[in-house]
Amino acid sequence: MNLQYLKSFYITVKCNSISKAAKSLHLTQPGLSMQLQNLEKELGVNLLNRSNKGVELTEEGKVVFDYANTLLSIQGNIERDLKNLQQDQPQLMIGSCKSVGEYALPCSIYTFKQLHKEVDIHMEVNNSTKVIEKLRKHTINIGIIQYDPKANDILTQTIVSDELLLVGNCYDSPKQISIKELKEIPLILREKNSGTRYSIEKALQEKGIRIEDLNVIYDLNSPEAIKSSILSGKGFSFLPKLIIQQELKKHCIQPVTVDNLTIPFDYFVAYRKNYTFTKYEKMFVDFIISSKRGFC
């Protein structure tokens, strides 16, 4: 498959206009149209419906567009990684779930950087699902996630164990509630597809409880925003013990025990199955999973 034709198709869809895409690609409109026709001929399907309103993907075009996004990302990353190899400064491309990336991991990265000043480190923070997506798209090479996806193309190694605690503010929160009372208290949860949300749903399912059975007042995609809501008395939430250690020490947040409900989980290093770590990537992974170091 001609990657230039695939790129032209991808840019045309993003621009929703052959004339705008041609300008972006520094091509004439007839030249771009010829590339699109050659790609359709090569694949044996129609990819676009053209009209005065722009272009619209066919069902076959939607499939090809999704693959084009991945393939072009991989192409860009290949060029980036080859360029990095030609440079004197080695790089680490890391993605982390928010529970670690916004709290403990920066300290670990700082310590590693002090030991290896020659390494250029880049970290992106997302939820665990998006970190896995970025691994698959080759945007990052090392992921730190909150659950094991148990996928054939992703390998994991355990870093450290943690648990989710139900917490409220320190003024009027009970120290213990029943499962029935859990269904009634106002809850603030992490967004869908986050590792925290996944762990909560899994633990509750074992008790015969669905998320829909709870009194969820809203979802937030930031652990820090959830903590702020709790401290201001907006409700309760399940948060990793790792990220509320300071609040627990200062007695700003009250842990709430729920009868017979515990939510343990592990943090993992994740990477592509067929990927071979560079020297410094291997050193960083060993540094993170070392029982003597782990997270700061």
TrEMBL record:
It holds the Pfam family LysR_substrate. One of its GO terms (molecular function) is DNA-binding transcription factor activity. InterPro entries: LysR_HTH_N, LysR_subst-bd, WH-like_DNA-bd_sf, WH_DNA-bd_sf. The keyword Transcription applies. Residues 1-58 form the HTH lysR-type domain. The keyword Phosphoprotein does not apply. This is DNA-binding transcriptional regulator, LysR family. It comes from Tepidibacter formicigenes DSM 15518.
